[in-house]
Write a structure and sequence with these properties.
heterodimer, A: 425 residues, D-Maltodextrin-Binding Protein, domain 2, seven-stranded mixed β-sheet, two-stranded antiparallel ribbon, 16 helices, globular, B: 305 residues, mainly alpha, MetI-like fold, 2 domains, 12 helices, disordered N terminus, signal (chain A), Bact_solute-bd_prot1 (chain A), SBP (chain A), Sugar ABC transporter substrate-binding protein (chain A)
Chain lengths: 425, 305
């Protein structure tokens, strides 16, 4: 009996093992025949860029025989879902990912090599450089830029006017940013509703997105080039922390700053409660129409301009059976028609620099400004980015919170933890 | 009497089997029928429990990538466990949480059960009301509290209290959530135990002039012991495996002060993609739980004698 029982277990294990190994097979692309022959393509994206993805998918489905089936996954669950699906060999045909996670995914072999397909695109040199760089692993290319989301400073012209500031002059240095926020707070903050500024104080990704451009604008860096060593314990990062620390200590930043986990950090500005704050450029299109908003590049303590070129990259999963159909959709999304008639029409930042000024963007100088920042901004590269900087239990969030709300004496030790996480093999 | 039953039943089965298949040999068909009866359970246990368990143990001995070939690296995944300060902290935090929640949950559940144990007008209403939170999914309940206590839009957020803003308040709020969600369920367990105590025992105690307190400590509690033990096992095991409330409600914060052991396992597997390391942690946690449950059951049996 015992022998037969163990035989049954062995059989069960074999099935499980086979299922697990199935995920590792590389499928040759092109098995499905012509690229646009009515294939159903599955695609995943995260909620942050749902609107843009949905518009692209709808436009493609309307004009093609292939049909893309889009699944939107909550931001916090996206990484675990991808990991679980990859482990089970159940990745969709196409999936987008936060651009900073892409190096890790490519190093894990989740994306199909599309170097040769990209080489045939006539506009390949105009694709957003930072996204393309992060999608390249060991000289092979795996992803295309999907959506771009840049961090910029928004200021509320209506509140500026009420506070006696010049509504047409936004900050050009981090020091001016702090001074203007303080003025709004002093003049209008007595009702407890309006505040000078706001930031996501318990959200690692928010710090990265909104604070780091000030470091780059000042000519500094946050990591070494390989993304294996942290430089966040040095100036100018420390100066940037100090500015925000003072703002919070003086009550200029909203009272829930310290607890803000990232789900609602962009929600206060559209309510007209914040004077000036860093915001994602993708939110410009959804701001209230009757609100007068100024947009200006994020600056360093004494000037300069930069931005975090965030957003999503998109690639074909290594396990797909519809590589040609998937590429048909991907290459269409970066083509002229989709870029101009779908993205530019909705004030989104384009994936191609050669189309930055087009018939739609010229109607709004703020959009032209945001598009022009793509070339000035940076996207940091690190293989272990997510677990170090985005993960709520990662070392960066502890570091940033001690720097802004806590005890500077602990920073040296926490910086070692960041180094250790970045260098993990 | 009962001890005699199986052989006799077995012989009856033999006769049935023999009648059913004259051609084939008796012992073999008997063996097949037995196996057939056991097969569904064996398959379910094998596929859903033993195979995954064996796979986890095997994973814990390998460097296991998301895609591609695993590489044997034992015992590295085990030796590096103590190097992870987050996990070491989470062990202490989980034990602390388990201790607090088990004491409070038992006390509240027992109080509720005693309140509604007798048939009185309206008692069904209160039983239902106390049990009702248990019908809300735990993840949904965690989100509910997150919204309710949110300082920006929650109905209880207007009070100038940082409900999840400091380590102690975050733990306090989570305990409130778990009590609200689970007290009714534990009450139900205790209630079945209370109902099983024969009325005659209470009547005899009353005839002998026992006070209410004496009745409670000398009759109710001792006779309730097996039920309390069951509740404790469920509560302790559940608390050591705590995940939803800390993952959704506090997100492990502030400053990693509410990170439970299972959260670290989840993080290692799905954020750091260290599947082998996560499997090793799971194996260690499983071993600890098995040992703990064995100990608890032993204490319980010892008490029965």
């Amino acid at each position: 009996m015992a022998k037969r029982f163990s035989a049954a277990i062995a059989a069960g294990l074999l099935v499980t093992a086979l299922a697990a190994c199935g995920g590792g097979e590389q499928t040759e692309g092109g098995a499905s025949g012509a690229p646009d022959s009515g294939t159903t393509i599955t695609m995943w994206t995260r909620a942050a860029t749902q609107a843009q993805s949905q518009r692209l998918v709808d436009a493609y489905n309307k004009s093609h025989k292939n049909q893309v089936k889009l699944t939107v996954i909550p931001i916090d669950n996206y990484q675990p879902r991808i990991a679980a699906a990859a482990g089970a060999g159940q990745l969709p045909d196409i999936f987008a990912a936060d651009v900073i996670f892409v190096p890790n995914y490519t190093s894990q072999g989740l994306y199909l090599d599309i170097t040769d397909r990209i080489a045939k695109l006539p506009f390949k040199d105009s694709l957003a450089a930072s996204h393309m760089k992060l999608g390249t692993y060991e000289n092979r290319m795996y992803t295309l830029p999907h959506t771009l989301d840049l961090s910029v400073w928004f200021w509320n012209k209506d509140l500026y006017k009420k506070a006696g500031l010049d509504p047409e002059k936004g900050p050009t240095t981090l020091k001016e940013f702090a001074a203007q926020a303080t003025t709004v707070q002093d003049k209008l903050g007595k009702d407890g509703k309006v505040h000078g500024t706001f930031f996501g104080g318990n959200c690692g990704g928010c710090y990265v997105f909104t604070f780091w451009p000030s470091v780059w604008a000042a000519g500094g860096q946050v990591m070494n080039e390989q993304g294996t060593k942290s430089l966040v314990n040095q100036s100018p990062m420390t100066d940037v922390f100090q500015t925000y620390k003072d703002l919070y200590a003086k009550g200029v930043s909203g009272p829930t700053t310290k607890e803000e986990q990232g789900a609602t950090w962009t929600g206060f500005f559209p309510k007209g409660e914040i004077g000036v704050m860093p915001m994602p450029s993708t939110t410009l299109g959804s701001m209230p129409a009757d609100m007068n908003i100024g947009v200006t590049p994020i600056a360093g303590p004494d000037g300069g301009q930069s931005t975090f070129v965030g957003g999503d990259s998109i690639g074909i999963s290594a396990t797909t059976k519809h590589a040609d159909a998937a590429w048909d959709f991907l290459s269409w999304t970066v083509g002229d028609e989709a870029q101009v008639e779908v993205l530019a029409k909705n004030k989104d930042v384009l994936a191609r620099t050669d189309l930055a000024s087009n018939k739609y963007s010229e109607a709004d100088p703020r959009v032209v400004l945001i598009n022009s920042l793509v070339a000035k901004g940076q996207t940091p590269y690190a293989l272990r980015f997510g677990q170090t900087f985005n993960d709520p239990q990662g070392p960066w969030l502890r570091f940033a919170r001690e720097a802004v709300f806590g005890d500077p004496a602990k920073l040296a030790e926490l910086n070692v933890a960041i180094d250790k996480s970045l260098a993990q093999s | 009497m009962t001890r005699l039953a199986p052989p006799r039943a077995g012989r009856d089965l033999d006769k049935v089997a023999a009648r059913a298949s004259h051609a084939r040999g008796r012992p073999r068909s008997r063996r097949y029928i037995g196996m057939l009866y056991a097969a569904p359970t064996a398959v379910i246990v094998g596929v859903l429990f033993l195979a995954p368990l064996a796979l986890v143990v095997w994973m814990s001995l390998n460097k296991w990538p998301l895609l591609g070939q695993a590489r044997f690296n034992a015992p590295e995944n085990y030796t590096k466990i103590s190097d992870d300060p987050l996990f070491v902290d989470s062990v202490f935090f989980t034990l602390k949480y388990t201790l607090i929640i088990t004491v409070l949950l038992s006390a509240v559940a027992l109080g509720l059960a005693l309140l509604v144990q007798n048939r009185r007008p309206g008692v069904t209403f209160f039983r239902t009301a106390f049990f009702l939170p248990g019908a809300v999914g735990f993840a949904a309940a965690s989100l509910l509290f997150y919204g309710m206590l949110n300082p920006d839009f929650g109905p209880l957020g207007f009070m100038d209290v940082k409900w999840i803003g400091t380590p102690n308040m975050a733990l306090f709020s989570t305990i409130a959530l778990v009590l609200w969600r689970f007290a009714g369920f534990n009450m139900l367990i205790l209630l079945t135990g209370l109902q099983a105590i024969p009325v005659q025992v209470y009547e005899a105690a009353r005839t002998d002039g026992a006070s209410r307190w004496q009745t409670f400590t000398k009759i109710t509690l001792p006779l309730l012991r097996p039920t309390i033990a069951l509740m404790l096992i469920l509560s302790i095991t559940g608390s050591l495996l705590a995940f939803d409330q800390f993952f959704i409600f506090t997100n492990g914060g502030p400053d990693n002060s509410t990170v439970s052991m299972v959260m670290v396992i989840y993080r290692n597997a799905f954020f750091r993609f260290d599947l082998g390391g996560a499997a090793a942690l799971s194996v260690v946690l499983l071993a600890a739980l098995v040992a703990l449950n064995a100990l608890q059951l032993r204490v319980l049996r010892g008490g029965d004698k």
